[in-house]
């Protein structure tokens, strides 16, 4: 294989996984469609009332439309990217999101996340760990998540203006518990 061709292939494949299917969202509802997208990309979901993480795409629960509501997302080492964040638009019950070692997560993703009106109301906990493309700009965009109670940030080398960024964020979200593990 020529140099770079493998990386190009994986980039193409990730773009395919992250393409939003609006017909599918209409047909099965936002929670089911988002579950399918997240699991295809290697993330896990947990539904309201269940202690168990769903990790098997083929084992997605069936039932009446709208029965299973996503409460938590663990996107550790997944290939989710900005292009697929539209799947989050209709999710009304997500309280917890973990983004860890997500190589395609960047400022634009965090901005999109914070502009999602349903998440502005429901999201309470957010963890961003070892996402190398996140900078101060992405962290500052989180100020729109007005119900966010806990934010954990770790191993984010793109954050350069730590004190200023965190001061601005704390002023915008005075009830936020901010935990940092940044060197």
Jot down its keywords.
alpha/beta, Leucine-rich repeat, LRR (right-handed beta-alpha superhelix), 17% strand, globular
Task: Write a short abstract of this structure.
The chain is built from seven helices and seven strands; from the N terminus they run αααββββααβαβαβ. By secondary structure, it is α/β, with parallel strands linked by helices.
Main sheet, how many strands, which sense, barrel?
7 strands, mixed
Helix content: 25-40%
Radius of gyration: 17 Å
Number of structural domains:
1
* Strand composition percent: 15-25%
H/E series: HHHEEEEHHEHEHE
Termini Cα gap: 39 Å
Report on this structure:
This protein has 183 residues and is α/β, with parallel strands linked by helices. The chain has one domain (9-181): Ribonuclease Inhibitor (Leucine-rich repeat, LRR (right-handed beta-alpha superhelix), Alpha-Beta Horseshoe). The chain contains 7 helices and 7 strands. It has helices at residues 5-17, 22-28, 30-40, 107-114, 117-122, 136-140, 162-172, and strands at residues 44-47, 53-54, 70-74, 96-100, 125-129, 150-154, 177-181. The longest helix is centred in the N-terminal third of the chain and has 13 residues, at 5-17. Mean pLDDT is 90; it is low at 4-10.
Protein topology:
Elements lengths: L4 H13 L4 H7 L1 H11 L3 E4 L5 E2 L15 E5 L21 E5 L6 H8 L2 H6 L2 E5 L6 H5 L9 E5 L7 H11 L4 E5 L2
Parallel strand pairs: 3-4, 4-5, 5-6, 6-7
Antiparallel strand pairs: 1-2, 1-3
